[in-house]
């Protein structure tokens, strides 16, 4: 006997609650294939399927089923269901980076919840809108060169809006007595105040978050709170207190068996001990970070660890070991295409070689040990056993933000080969170096301009080419155009175009009959044909929708290049990059404008002194959105 749609859906719900989203989606899809005439059941299946695909990070399918849910809820006049479907759509669009559309959907959820007197739904909608603005603010901050708290006005406005919605959410969940929701609100308020540079306020909220996490025994939330407290204390200059929180972060990460978070905590601890000038302990933690990065095949993380180790060994005066790690950092930066890392590593290698009095030819290829001709210096290599022996007194671990795994799909390049071969031949004929960029772009522009010419329509010229002939051709052409515009066939053509365009609009409309799994019977036909709630959306909703639609053209623009390669074992917003930006700005402020050379009287014994190179300390920030 075949299982009914409801039985399959209940089994899918059970599997999803147990954490088996893959199995749950299989049962939900089977339920859709069987189909049902119960519209409420089908709406629930759409919602559950959308949520399951969301957790599986298949956001396209999640979006599809949440849209089906929204269409069905509107059709049957289910206002509460429409609000929930709008909220789910908003969360999915937020993850896809479509923040304006997400804000419209979440605002719709809030409006419906307030209209229906649904306090729980209203609290969720307020939280979701805050989350949308929070994520948008973080994206705007990416690559921003300002110091913490010194933000562009648009970024500050976005984060302040997020804070306002979180505060409204906190007030409402306190009224409802929902302690778990209060914890989430406290955590996110701490995160937004941190981004705004209000570090004292951030610490206050994160301590509240920590207290509620302990109350519920939520170790993951407790670990995030410790990490966030450490980050905020760093900016207040309280490094010793920060290490205590980072060590608790490390300990909880190990309890949770989260290697990625453990690596991030070691990274943060290594950099904090560097700031405290306790270089031996810093090296110990950076070696732990390096080992985990190697186990996870995180080449970017390995490069950061080698960079930090090189800086620490320089501070201890061990230039040979520092050169070993600087060379490893250089090799890794070349491998992953990190241009900035490569330039910094090359500068470090050159300065260390000069300090040691060695030349490039005296060095062997960088491997597991540092070698010179006639000399051999073995670097320390820690096994799993010695790893534990060299660990500082406390056992700890740390946690990172979830990082998407990117895959690179290379499209076939065969159609481009003849074009670039012809370019290369042209370069060789000109006797110029193919690597000459100016030469290449000159040829490229010529090829592209000729392509444009190929698409132009050329009018045949008369044999005589006289002005009289040209004027007669113009009059003939005008007569042809006039006759074409007045002919009956032209009217038929315009009618055909109009009907075809109207059909295109119809193709974009949603038909209830196209909803998967819906069986239309006499029982539900009345619900499907009857008009839903006649209330129209407010003008504010349409204004937001127009604003959102106007931003669609931005989706067709090329995204800017990323700031550089990212790594799972290095926190998403690492302190090192931040300190680099801050130091660069400070150096600019200390530069002096040079006078005109004619205005200067240079002494005969004047000599130029090279600027001393100062290595920046690598540091990390692992701000987490709860």
UniProtKB/TrEMBL annotation:
GO MF annotation terms: G-protein alpha-subunit binding; GDP-dissociation inhibitor activity
Annotated keywords: Cell membrane, Cytoplasm, Membrane, Phosphoprotein, Repeat, TPR repeat
Pfam family, any one: TPR_12
Repeat positions for TPR: 43-76, 223-256
Record's subcellular location: Cell membrane; Cytoplasm
Superkingdom, natural source: Eukaryota
Keyword Membrane belongs to the record: yes
Family indicated by similarity: Belongs to the GPSM family.
UniProt name for this protein: G protein signaling modulator 1b
Source organism of the structure: Pygocentrus nattereri
């Amino acid at each position: 006997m075949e299982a009914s749609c409801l039985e399959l859906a209940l089994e899918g719900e059970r599997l999803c609650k147990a954490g088996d989203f893959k199995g749950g989606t299989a049962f939900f899809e089977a339920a859709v294939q069987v189909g049902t005439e119960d519209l409420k059941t089908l709406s629930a299946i759409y919602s559950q399927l959308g949520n399951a695909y969301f957790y599986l990070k298949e956001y396209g399918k999640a979006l599809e089923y949440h849209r089906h849910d929204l269409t069905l809820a509107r059709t049957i006049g289910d206002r509460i269901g429409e609000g929930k479907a709008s909220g789910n759509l908003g969360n999915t669009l937020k993850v896809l980076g479509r923040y304006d559309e997400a804000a419209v959907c979440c605002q719709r959820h809030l409006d419906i919840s307030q209209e229906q007197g649904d306090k729980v739904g209203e609290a969720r909608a307020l939280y979701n809108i805050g989350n949308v603005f929070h994520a948008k603010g973080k994206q705007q901050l990416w690559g921003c060169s300002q110091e913490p708290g010194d933000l562009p006005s648009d970024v500050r406005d976005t984060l302040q809006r997020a804070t306002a919605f979180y505060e409204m959410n906190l007030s409402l969940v306190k009224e409802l007595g929902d302690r778990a929701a209060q914890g989430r609100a406290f955590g996110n308020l701490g995160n937004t105040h941190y981004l705004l540079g209000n570090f004292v306020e951030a610490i206050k909220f994160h301590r509240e978050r920590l207290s509620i996490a302990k109350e519920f025994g939520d170790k993951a939330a407790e670990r995030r709170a410790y990490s966030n407290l450490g980050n905020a204390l760093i900016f207040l200059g309280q490094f010793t207190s920060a290490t205590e929180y980072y060590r608790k972060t490390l300990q909880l990460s190990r309890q949770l068996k989260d290697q990625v978070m453990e690596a991030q905590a070691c990274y943060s601890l290594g950099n904090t001990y560097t700031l405290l000038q306790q270089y031996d302990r810093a090296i110990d933690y950076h070696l732990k970070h390096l080992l985990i990065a190697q186990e996870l095949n995180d080449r970017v993380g390995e490069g950061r660890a080698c960079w930090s180790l090189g800086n620490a060994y320089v501070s201890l005066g061990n230039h040979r070991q520092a050169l070993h790690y600087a060379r490893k950092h250089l090799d890794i930066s070349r491998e992953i295409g990190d241009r900035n890392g490569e330039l910094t590593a090359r500068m470090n290698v050159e300065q260390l070689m000069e300090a040691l009095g060695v030349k490039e030819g005296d060095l062997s290829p960088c491997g597991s040990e540092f070698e010179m001709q006639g000399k051999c210096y073995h670097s320390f290599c820690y096994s799993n056993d010695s790893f534990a022996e060299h660990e500082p007194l406390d056992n700890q671990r740390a946690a990172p933000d979830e990082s998407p795994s990117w895959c690179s799909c290379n499209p076939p390049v065969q159609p481009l080969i003849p074009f670039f071969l012809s370019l290369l031949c042209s370069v060789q004929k000109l006797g110029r170096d193919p690597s000459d960029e100016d030469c290449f772009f000159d040829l490229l522009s010529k090829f592209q301009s000729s392509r444009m010419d190929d698409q132009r329509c050329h009018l045949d010229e008369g044999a005589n080419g006289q002005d009289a002939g040209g004027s007669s051709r113009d009059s003939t052409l005008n007569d042809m155009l006039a006759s074409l515009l007045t002919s009956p066939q032209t009217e038929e053509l315009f009618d055909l175009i109009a009907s075809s365009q109207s059909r295109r609009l119809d193709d974009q409309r949603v038909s209830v009959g196209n909803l998967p799994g819906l069986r239309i019977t006499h029982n539900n036909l009345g619900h499907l044909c009857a008009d839903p709630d006649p209330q129209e959306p407010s003008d504010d909703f349409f204004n937001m929708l127009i604003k959102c639609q106007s931003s669609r053209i931005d989706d067709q623009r090329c995204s800017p290049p990323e700031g550089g390669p990212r790594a799972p074992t290095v926190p998403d917003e690492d302190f090192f990059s931040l300190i680099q930006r801050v130091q660069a700005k400070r150096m600019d402020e200390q530069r002096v404008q040079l006078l005109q050379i004619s205005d200067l009287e240079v002494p005969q014994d004047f000599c130029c002194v090279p600027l001393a190179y100062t290595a920046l300390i690598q540091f990390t920030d692992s701000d987490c959105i709860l």
